[in-house]
Fold this sequence. Notes:
Layout: H1 3-23, H2 32-53, H3 60-72, H4 74-83, H5 106-127
Amino acid sequence: xxxxxxxxxxxxxxxxxxxxxxxxxxxxxxxxxxxxxxxxxxxxxxxxxxxxxxxxxxxxxxxxxxxxxxxxxxxxxxxxxxxxxxxxxxxxxxxxxxxxxxxxxxxxxxxxxxxxxxxxxxxxxxxx
Length: 128
């Protein structure tokens, strides 16, 4: 397995684990859109793992587009974790004592960094 394929699989696995945090409600009761985001992350993470394992997969352009979308959807989550640092994230229905902290943006930052590396590697492979 090439380094690029390993990076793709790692990216997909980190995305799957991060999506599970939101689907399983680790951060307490939240808006339904948060669970929806987790489901989207699970789906995209699974696709990225599959593309990393599958040798006869889709073109590099399609891989770059999927990974770019994955990186793109991390931006609002990172922003919100930093914005709500030190405050509650529940709208009160049901109430929750969970307090947001910027450190919870870490997996999203990791996904973004690995995603940028994967996109760069795919781009480099197609330009040489």
